[in-house]
């Protein structure tokens, strides 16, 4: 087991959450816990796409506004959004106003409906991509966590083949970490 250092842990938590109350709550209550709810899975993959090029904290602070703007990320509702919704969202200062990411979320909602039709649920689809333990380091430290893995690359390629947008390998790996498909809590973290 890696030594408990401030580089890897803060108050027996993963280094990245620091001591900010919002981040600590997210780390302790959500991050890395297995998620099987289709709407939450859809929300997270979309928010990871919005996060691309930004910090997760930027998205986390705006998550409730994103939820209101995107009808709770109910992909059945988002799939029906029109150009008028895109215009509305581009004017919403509470979210990231990036046309490509907004349009990708609507597109991905439509693609999510196709996955549900084929697999029965997003849960069944995403959980087939559980990352094998041999892909990741035995000891999880700040330096050992990869940006992507062969499994996140496969997930990204499969989603793109199905027409999804803003789902690169790094985005997919962050999604897998957050939704518990992999356990990347640091060695010594309460939640490891």
TrEMBL record:
Family annotation (Pfam families): Adenine_glyco
Question: Which Enzyme Commission numbers does its entry carry?
Answer: 3.2.2.20
Q: Name one GO biological process term.
A: base-excision repair
Gene3D superfamilies named among the record's database cross-references = Hypothetical protein, domain 2
Catalytic EC class: hydrolase
Point out the coiled-coil segments of this chain. Answer: none
Single GO molecular-function term?
Answer: metal ion binding
Q: Where does Zn(2+) bind?
A: 14, 27, 185, 189
Keywords carried by this UniProt record: DNA damage, DNA repair, Hydrolase, Metal-binding, Zinc
Enzymatic reactions: Hydrolysis of alkylated DNA, releasing 3-methyladenine
Biological role stated in the UniProt entry = Hydrolysis of the deoxyribose N-glycosidic bond to excise 3-methyladenine from the damaged DNA polymer formed by alkylation lesions.
| Protein's name according to its UniProt entry | DNA-3-methyladenine glycosylase I
- Look up and give the organism this protein is from: Formosimonas limnophila
Q: What is the lineage of its organism?
A: Bacteria, Pseudomonadati, Pseudomonadota, Betaproteobacteria, Burkholderiales
């Amino acid at each position: 087991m890696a030594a408990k250092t401030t580089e890897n842990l803060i108050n027996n938590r993963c280094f990245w959450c620091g001591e900010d109350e919002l981040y600590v709550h997210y780390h302790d209550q959500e991050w890395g816990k297995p998620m099987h709810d289709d709407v939450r899975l859809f929300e997270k993959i979309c928010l990871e796409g919005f996060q691309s090029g930004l910090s997760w904290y930027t998205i986390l602070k705006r998550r409730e506004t994103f939820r209101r703007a995107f009808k709770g990320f109910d992909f059945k509702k988002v799939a029906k959004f029109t150009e008028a919704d895109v215009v509305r969202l581009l004017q919403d200062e509470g979210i990231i106003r990036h046309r490509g990411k907004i349009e990708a979320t609507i597109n991905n909602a439509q693609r999510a409906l196709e996955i549900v039709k084929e697999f029965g649920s997003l849960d069944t689809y995403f959980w087939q991509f559980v990352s094998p333990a041999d892909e990741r380091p035995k000891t999880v430290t700040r330096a050992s966590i990869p940006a992507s893995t062969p499994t996140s690359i496969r997930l990204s390629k499969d989603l793109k083949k199905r027409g999804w947008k803003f789902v690169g390998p790094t985005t997919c790996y962050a999604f897998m970490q957050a939704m518990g498909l992999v356990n990347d809590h640091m060695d010594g973290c309460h939640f490891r």
